[in-house]
Amino acid sequence: MQPSAKPAIPAAEPGVSLTSHGEPGAVETEIRQLIGNGKSKAALDRAKDYHKAIATAASETLLLDAYVARIHSLLQVNLTLEAKSLVDLLKQRYPAVRDRLDNISVSIAARSGTLDDLLRPLTEPALSAGRRAGIEQAIMCEIADLGALARCEALPADHSLRTAAAALE
Questions:
Q1: Where is average pLDDT lowest: 33-47, 83-97, 125-139?
Q2: Where does the pLDDT of residue 88 fall: very low under 50, low under 70, confident under 90, or very high at 90 and above?
Q3: SS3 string of the chain?
Q4: Backbone angles phi, psi at 132, to 5 degrees
Q5: Which of 19, 20, 55, 142 is the most buried (most CB within 10 A)?
Q6: CA gap 157, 137 in Å, rounded
């Protein structure tokens, strides 16, 4: 009887030091270190290869962590459209991760100036307190145009945000 073969873990991107020699725990550590060192593109590429090779729940979680790190790095350099594309892709491929991406989506909507998309959820009666807090945080940190907030048609004319923004403007 032959011992079961370990799945092949493809080599990392050229120029990225590997310490793992294909051991799953070491590969996970390596990817987490890449994320921690701000090398989100290399981490994402490595996580994709790793998940493709072993396809476990743990590798999927690691892949999603790498995607989220990549999205944050894109937002840091004002590549909002690219970040939004990745968020949309993740929401489509991994529906269970939608809640985790809500705050990122809020930040993207605020940065891209799509106030309707950002504020529309505030009219939903079933909006969770966490999501509401995320939207309010994005408004405080990302919105500079009070006039646009006061004119936002996604909210009713008498909504407290619109009236407060109009008064401050």
A1: 125-139
A2: very high
A3: CCCCCCCCCCCCCCCCCCCCCCCHHHHHHHHHHHHHCCCHHHHHHHHHHHHHHHCCHHHHHHHHHHHHHHHHHHHHCCCHHHHHHHHHHHHHHCHHHHHHHHHHHHHHHHHHCCHHHHHHHHHCCCCCHHHHHHHHHHHHHHCCCHHHHHHCCCCCCCCHHHHHHHHHC
A4: -60, -45
A5: 20
A6: 21
Q: Which residue has the tokens 């106030």?
A: 115
Residue type, 91: K
Greater confidence (51 vs 5) lies with: 51
Alpha carbon separation from 95 to 75, 129, 153 (Å, rounded)? 22, 21, 29
108-140 burial code (b ≥16 CB/10 A, e <16):
bbbbeeebeebbbbbeeeeeeeebeebbeebbe
Most confident range (mean pLDDT) of 17-31, 71-85, 132-146 is: 71-85
- pTM recorded for the entire structure: 0.68
pLDDT at 62 over 70: yes
